[in-house]
Amino acid sequence: ESVALTGSLRPKQVVDVSSRIAGRLTKMLVDTGYPVAQGALIAVIEDDEIRQQLERSKAALAVVDAQIAQRQAELGNAKIELERRTQLVESGVLSRNELDTLQMRYAVSQSQLELARAQRRQSEAEERELTIRQGQTRITSPIAGTVARRHVTIGAMVSSANPIVTVVSNSPMIVDAQVAERDVTRIRRGLMVDVT
Q1: What is the pLDDT of residues 56-91, one digit of tens each?
Q2: What is the DSSP track for 77-121?
């Protein structure tokens, strides 16, 4: 015994894919009707400015590394000088005032080295942030499915507020159908269904 129903078929998942950052769309790799895998590249946003900022960040890291090397050398020199002068003060050849000055110089060298190391950590954090932003210029599909609609064209300004494409999952699909009251008792969970 069968029951004929009229209804509509719809995807279980519908995702409007948008950019996490604002920018100009430079590449569009899909169009309406294209199948996409989860994680597949859909579009690319211009990243010239971010690439330039990354280069500047790498240069800043190189400068900080040079400062760290310089500060380490200064600290090593201050330590050697302090040790030599400490022996001379203990033997009574030099005054305590000169030793105090050297101890201050050593402490300043230590703090300058710590400052340079902190600047390196800050520069590394900035570089990581820029790398994340550069990755966000590559728009990927969060689900496997089919591109149901393309909302923009190459050259358009995009942002998180405007979808680039709409992707729908192909499986599973949901059937919405109305059942006549007289047929409700003949339908139950687990029955085979033919969809045409």
Answers
A1: 999 999 999 999 999 999 999 999 988 888 888 888
A2: HHHHHHHHHHHHHHTTSS-HHHHHHHHHHHHHHHHHHHHHHHHHH
